[in-house]
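Field guide to reading this record: the first block holds the primary sequence, the second block holds the structure written as discrete tokens, and the final block holds curator observations. Each block starts with its own label. This record concerns FAD-binding FR-type domain-containing protein, catalogued under organism Fusarium oxysporum.

BLOCK 1 — SEQUENCE
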Amino acid sequence: MGWEEVADKTLDLSLCESLPTNLYIDPKCTLRELLLNNIDFTAIPRRSFLKNMSYFSTNPDHKERLLEFTMTEYLDEYFDYATRSRRSILEVLEEFTSVKLPAERLFDIFPTIRGRDFSIANGGVHQNHPTDKDETRIELLVALVKYKTVLRKPREGLCSRYLDNIPLDSILTVTRKPVLSPIHGPQNARRPLVAIATGTGLAPIRALIHERLTHSSPGPMHLFFGNRNREADYFFQQELDAAVREGHLNVFLAFSRDQRNKIYVQDRLREEAKRIEEIIFNNGIFCVCGGSTKMADAAKKAVFDPFSEDVKDIEERKKILAALTWWQEIW
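BLOCK 2 — STRUCTURE
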């Protein structure tokens, strides 16, 4: 890129008229620090990025190829080159070596690293620090993103890889986002709960279970948890098994790849239709958490359809379902 001579010179970002809102760096920093901590070189290049690259290429063949990716008639080629293969910006820059992007256009051309949201996986007394009463203990449940495409090098998630490799006792800068939902507090803890989670969606459900158990006389709790394999993907198994033995929780499992016929959480919900109907009539709370809108829709259908078949009065049914507490955290 030809940035070696300026990489370690101090910049003064306070002189800039406008900056991306999600920068996490001292206003007086170096270009190298800016690149390492804020620019997302692992992102898939947009067509606009490739077009900008073409403007700064000194190779006619490179310029032509980059411009082709931006044309409507070459959308399939762009899809194969960038999207399907999950090719990164860094890999594109390494391929088109004639491109010399000006450092002063950094924020105009490159995407910045976007923040990642993670649900806190512990709640109630489990947030108490074991040795310091003034500190709060936070646990996360993070899936390590790693997969293969047509490219030789495996693809990895930027944030999950970072978390997997940071040394113990590292200090991280995070932002806490309060979530306003109708499911917390002592009054809600007395209501029956149906929690539906897949994968790392178990994190906020676990925190909610912890919180409910800190209140007096918590209502019955029913967890419908789905993932791929019981042996590898049954998160917090010992803790959940203990909660079942102690009578705090009922658990219904759906591990889709442990048998020939795939089983999902919506299948378990339909199997427990009578139990679900009773919870609806008893002002229950329904929570759905996971990484799929399709799953959330299927779960809602699995709850609503059997109830609609049993309650024939349309107006009564509409009134009951409209008043139902249904909370989702889907990403």
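BLOCK 3 — OBSERVATIONS
The chain has a mean pLDDT of 93.
The longest strand covers residues 221-227.
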